[in-house]
Amino acid sequence: MEFLKTLQVQEQNMGTSSGAHWFNTETSILSSFSPTDNRLIGKVYTTSEADYHALIKTAQEGFKVWRSWPAPKRGEVVRHLGEKLRILKKPLGQLVSYEMGKSLAEGMGEVQEMIDICDFAVGLSRQLYGLTIQSERQDHRMYEHWQPLGIVGIISAFNFPVAVWSWNAAIAWICGDVCIWKPSEKTPLCAVAVQHIVAEIFKEHGVPEGVSCTIQGNREIGSWLVKDEKVALISATGSTAMGKIVGKLVSERLGRSLLELGGNNAIIISQHADLNLAIPAAVFGAVGTAGQRCTTTRRLIIHSSIFDIVTSKLQKAYSQLKIGDPLDAQYHVGPLIDKAAVDTYLKAIEASKKEGGVFIVEGGVLSGNQYESGCYVKPCIIKVHSDSTIAKHETFAPILYVMTYETIEEAIDIQNNVPQGLSSAIITNHLKESEIFLSYKGSDCGIANVNIGTSGAEIGGAFGGEKETGGGRESGSDAWKNYMRRQTTTINWGNNLPLSQGIKFDLGNA
Ligand code: UN1
Question: Mean pLDDT, to the nearest integer, of 69-86?
């Protein structure tokens, strides 16, 4: 496996890093096994408490220098990172596939998201606009401008082991911040590979140590970052359960958090839908990344008049899905991340059966030589009642719940009647339906699409959602404002000192 060598993920003493410097304290070991074949890919040392504190110090020092670089100069470094990622797109995509289990096409797609966000950040580095405001006082000027925050802690999930980090890091860097990354314990080597790449580019361009740091380990190690008042912003991606803990700990110290948590995304398939769009949108949405995207399509809300035709087309499409080694481009679907995820998948199927759910496409765990890691499952479709309890729950697996509706209002109610609020879609050629879906009466999600599926958002838009999804927005649009602090300034260029609100404060002749 050439890519492991190219990306230097099998070296010794990896784990904690403040840039080109790798701390080599021998602590406990985190082993990374591939869900594709159960092989040990490599090991990292978890971060020691002493190394964590040393890292914070380096990051603080690094920040003092980095924030003084003009933003376009910081952008220039990010541009070079994007160039390097173009060169390494294939090996890094392969590592993502091998360590996480998503198909190679999706692994490479993830690296493409990194490249895209680098490009976006470069352009943004010449913007970061503030406003000017009319002052009520004569000869005064008011404006607001944006300053870097300091240290940004990034906690990322296994399912997007590199892209979601880059949404945060690329933007935080051009804003003048420094980053400490705590990747998922399930994908430590993707972070090691990325840190090697970043460190090389940063070294070439004279970026100070501490601007890009990584720590490795379990939740406890993550909690050092979360509780640390020296960390100005915690951007965390993962489950709602994790987000509730992180959000509470950060708010206890009145820090800032940006949460991107669970989704329970639905596509409404109207009787006015073009099924040539609906079927592939639903299938990719449900089985892409083996159902482990936060944007995965988990529910199809289908108009009752077309339920039979839609489900028979889905059965046909699912029968053509190839499940197997994600590094082999012929397969659409790889394994789940680990055996615990397989258990969760099986339990959700059991729970839906207990509620009266009926298989439209049968599920199950695959066995045989090719599947000996025990992590390969069959994407399945279950018909449930529109008020099903299990369908309100986010199960990170390729289970698609289908249900029927009669009116567009009812479809929207079903779509919104879940605790999460990340992504949503409607497939329709009916203008009014689509406008209702996009109106104040419509989807309550952070993402609402028409005639495309729920997953595969582009980096140019703000990404995130409402309710239990956490409310944060990352990536494009004006999400950069999360990584900076706003400063409002009033400048008096006159010879008098008028007070606002017309207040008189006369000191006589003093
Ligand atoms: C995630 O699953 O955490 O919109 C991120 C998408 C991808 C990102 C998903 N661009 O599906």
Answer: 98
